Amino acid sequence: MKILGIYALFALLTLALIVIIDVISGIGLLASLHSLSTIFATTTLQESICITIFLLLPFIQVAYHASKRHSRRKPS
Q1: pLDDT tens, residue by residue, 20-67
Q2: What number of other Cβ atoms are within 10 A of residue 36's Cβ?
Q3: Is the pTM of this model over 0.70?
């Protein structure tokens, strides 16, 4: 579960960095947040599928390794 926390922290830091750079360059805070939403509004179906897969990969990895560890344990 620690790895999911690290992924979430990196995602938040990336979004914060994008917004901070926009604000420093003279774009308002609300305009910067709006530009983030318009980026995803113009994606095609194929791009949305790729984005979704890459966003779900950390969760899939954690679930896979957790089930692998659980199956290796011998019942007592």
Answers
A1: 998 999 999 889 888 888 877 888 889 989 988 988 888 888 888 888
A2: 13
A3: no
Which amino acid, one-letter code, is at 15?
A: L
Number of DSSP helices (H) and strands (E) in the chain, helices first: 3, 0
Phi-psi sector, 73: left (phi>0), alpha (psi -120 to 50), beta: beta
Amino acid at the residue 52: T
How far is the C-alpha of 21 from the C-alpha of 23, rounded, in Å?
5
Q: Which residue, 9, 4, 6, is CA-closest to 58?
A: 4
**Total number of residues shown for the chain:** 76
